[in-house]
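Entry 14. Structure prediction run on the chain below.
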Amino acid sequence: MKTPPSQAMNAKAHRGILLTGLALYLIGLAFVGAWPTPVDRPLGGLLKDLIEAARSYPLTAGITYMHVEGAANVLLFVPLGLMVALLLPVRRWWLAGVAGALISGAIETVQYLASGQRQASLGDVVNNTLGAVLGAVAIRVVRTRPAQVAAPDPGTEPVYRRRVMKTIAETADVADTAAIGEGTRIWHLAQVREDASVGSNCNIGRGVYLGPGVVLGNNCKLQNYALVYEPACLADGVFVGPAAVLTNDLHPRAITPDGTLKDSDDWVAVGVTVGKGASIGAAAVCIAPVSIGEWATVAAGAVVTRDVAAYAIVAGIPARQTGWVGEAGHPLKQDSGSWLCPATGRRYVETSGQLTPAEMG
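Output returned:
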């Protein structure tokens, strides 16, 4: 895809920052875990004085050094849970707790095998894991909290909410972690899933479904009940007609061979890539993995099972190329060894099965 959407670039930048922060945190954690003596030894006297002072108050009379150490171990791993959960899909937040348990277990194992002054403890693993889980739960809560809906104007029907030049119907379901560009309109009963990215000035019709992580460029138009499953990626100016489907499962099954219901770990999602300005007609089906070239046109009702060249028109079941089309959407006519757009007068040259505008040939 020649023009990656700005939202996708921002998402990559944020992910890079998170990965850098996680790497620095793990380096620091490695130093703490590998230090030859207990890291709290220089502060031992001060900590004991503080604990003794706290014990003079009724609410903290029962506090001991073990309580302080346990709380410190919990807090130490909260950042790990936060960062790992942010890097994971929303529904995989719990893996941050698993990561905390594995990393803490590795640290305690090293201390047991290689350190004479550090005492390995199963309790430390439990506390560290708890910290990671708490951090992950915090991210889970934030990413799935109910959307804040602006108060509707009195007497307005239907009711819409506006978010910085965006118009989103009240009956639409837009995840908090989805990125929606300015000027985009999302109509009734549409669903935009977690981490989806929609560019500016898009029109998302009634009942449209955009799966988790789907990327749309600017000025896209998805008509009623179009279904776009992850990890589809649509460039700027893409048109998807009503009831069109972009699939993501090459070998679909509801159950595994042993009869259990499949979940996301039992298959690998594959996506449809659509180039700039391309159009997919009503009720067409694009079977992933497949690429639709820029300015191509998929006819209504077609079933696309292989890549479509730029500027090509495809139709039928399975779809086959029937001609060429220009940027204006009109079929091209052959004229004096080249192809001519009847709407704009622009000429195109065909070379080795590929079409390019004449001035670019």
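Residues 331-361 form one domain.
Filed with the rest of this week's runs.
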